[in-house]
Design brief:
The chain has about 170 residues and is α/β, with parallel strands linked by helices. The chain has one domain (about 1-170): Response regulator (Rossmann fold, 3-Layer(aba) Sandwich), CATH 3.40.50.2300. It contains 7 helices and 5 strands; from the N terminus they run ββαβααβαβααα.
Amino acid sequence: MVCTGNICRSPMAELLLRGHLDARGVRARVRSAGTLAWHGPATDGAVEVMEARGLDLRAHRSQELTPTLVADADLIVGMTRNHVWGVTAHEPGAETRAFVIGELVRLGPLVGTRANAEPARDWAARVAERRGDSPVGRAGDDVADPYGEPLDFYEATAVRLERDLVVVASLLDG
């Protein structure tokens, strides 16, 4: 997931984060891009669980993650460590702004909210410093990809994304 020139890995996450940021008046461009070269619509399960929340994913079309998208992103949020590793494979310098969603929720509060005029890229770098020598993310930071799973799995994923992305939006509300 990319925010403010940011990348989200999931169309559900993209839509939810954009809504939370808009509600707070945080100006950001939020886009999703995947590490696979697939240019299709959101899955039926994603459309259905977002529709139940009053959000419309029917017009969504996936896009492939590119080095340009990564380079332009101030903050990159992936659902899993594999997603983040895919991002850093495109641009090794992205480690200071690429996070697993749960990792950002875990580490972000340690540095606090983004200062009012602070660029999101600078705030992300401060959060990345909290990793120390640890690799990107922990197993518990991952949000399982619901692709191919039953509707209740999509719902559980949406609940987790909703919970975590409210925190991310509050941290970006500087």
